[in-house]
Amino acid sequence: MSHSEQHAGVTDFTIGESVTTQTEQGLYIDPNALTAHLPALHYRDDALYMEQVSVAALAKHYGTPCYVYSKQAILDVYQAYTDSFSSLKHQVCYAVKANSNLAVLGILAQAGAGFDIVSRGELMRVLAAGGEAARVVFSGVGKTRGDIKYALTQGIGCFNVESISELTLINDVAKSLDKPAPISLRVNPDVDANTHPYISTGLKDNKFGIAHEDAATVYQQAAELSHIDIVGIDCHIGSQLTEVEPFVAALDKIIELVHSLRDKGIELRHIDLGGGLGVRYIDETPVSIDEFAEALLPKLSALGLTVFFEPGRSIVANAGILLTTVDVLKPTEHKNFAIVDAAMNDLIRPALYQAEMAVIPEMLPQNGLDTDGTQPWDIVGAICETGDFLAKDRLLSLATGDVLAITGAGAYGFTMSSNYNSRPRASEVMVADDRHQLIRKRETIEALYADETLWQAE
Ligand SMILES: *Cc1c(COP(=O)(O)O)cnc(C)c1O
């Protein structure tokens, strides 16, 4: 289906086509062209809508800053994964850390998703949202005795183990509960994911996983432990990968291992390829889920194992926006600053990963780039840090009180938010068709210090 069919009245924009114009003054992002790539968003009579709900109405009703997610956009990507791999026995384990709101988890659990978790807290969320522990894989480089005990008691599907020391700890806990622990080893295949260094995890120097060349030995050690049940093999090489080659390179290395384990009498039930598929935030051209499946399927079919995936970002990133209001316009001799009511505590990706995220207006300007009053703006928060920016040098026509939407904010947005500067965290809203619901209320300021006490010892 072409994009023009999805959004009647909008010019057809093809996948690889740029939605930006770089001028000497700054970057212009065409809001119509951008939203043509974002299934949940469109302009109707120049006003921005998510599904069938006006963004202006949402900002008015819930206030800003506010995260808004599209139920349909979440389900569509989940469905694309399960459809693309339908010829294989597979399980999509949504990576909870990308967006852990109960409503998001509940929608995915109902659709049949499993989950990838990295803490006891995330497991508790999954269970509270109606997910099944048996369909959960427990990742993460440092699990505590308490985490392991809780997960085993709940009937976790699999621990993805990252070291020998973790393996013996899991065996210990399993023994004390007299309950065998299902495990896979997270293998570090030493491939370059070609992504930002902070979200690259499959290189020798990273803290993650067990070195590819040591994996067979560790599997043999695992096989000798009394309360370890070896069920799979796992890797996760990084996040926001836009090419398929690193996935294929990692898979080849894992397959080699599966064969050598078979020769040693160790039979696995599943192979877990982790998450990491990238999304189009502005002009990126990530491999599609279809192309991803096409590249991997022939190799996977030959293996005869159940395939697990742990996608996070690709499922929720483009299902979400962060709504913010322009509070202050501060033109200076060298730069113009638009100070908005969202800040790095709400959305840290630009500051932490140098991520470029699109900022689009709630009301479309009449003549786009040529609009009178279009100027380069840095969109910044009110926090006392120079790193507190959401976007830099963007050509926009702004007035105080304008509502802006930061797109691609559904993943690693709210979950990475903090209370820095004693700022309450934003509210979250789910939209489905013409309905909307508050799925997390804005924190109160009192709640931020409710658990603190004055010093009273003297
Ligand atoms: C973060 C993470 C994921 C999800 O990665 P995305 O890039 O969001 O798909 C999956 N598995 C593990 C082990 C992770 O740490």
Automatic annotation (TrEMBL):
The yes or no answer to whether the keyword Lyase is present is: yes
- Which NCBIfam families does the entry link to? lysA
Q: In which pathway does it act?
A: Amino-acid biosynthesis; L-lysine biosynthesis via DAP pathway; L-lysine from DL-2,6-diaminopimelate: step 1/1
Q: How does it assemble?
A: Homodimer.
Extract the CDD domains matched here: PLPDE_III_DapDC (cd06828)
Entry-linked Pfam families: Orn_Arg_deC_N, Orn_DAP_Arg_deC
| Reported cofactor(s) | pyridoxal 5'-phosphate
Q: Indicate the segments forming the Orn/DAP/Arg decarboxylase 2 N-terminal domain, all copies.
A: 76-317
Q: Which UniProt keywords apply?
A: Amino-acid biosynthesis, Decarboxylase, Lyase, Lysine biosynthesis, Pyridoxal phosphate
* Highest taxon of the lineage: Bacteria
- Gene (UniProt): lysA
Species this protein is from: Psychrobacter glaciei
Top EC class per UniProt? lyase
Reaction it catalyzes? meso-2,6-diaminopimelate + H(+) = L-lysine + CO2
Chain sites annotated for binding substrate: 313, 349, 353, 385, 412
Which family would the database say this protein is a member of? Answer: Belongs to the Orn/Lys/Arg decarboxylase class-II family. LysA subfamily.
Role of this protein: Specifically catalyzes the decarboxylation of meso-diaminopimelate (meso-DAP) to L-lysine.
Look up the EC number in the record and give it: 4.1.1.20
- InterPro entries referenced in this protein's UniProt entry, alphabetically: Ala_racemase/Decarboxylase_C (IPR009006), DAP_deCOOHase_LysA (IPR002986), De-COase2_C (IPR022643), De-COase2_CS (IPR022657), De-COase2_N (IPR022644), De-COase2_pyr-phos_BS (IPR022653), Orn/DAP/Arg_de-COase (IPR000183), PLP-binding_barrel (IPR029066)
Query: What is the protein name given in its UniProt record?
Result: Diaminopimelate decarboxylase
Residues bearing N6-(pyridoxal phosphate)lysine? 97
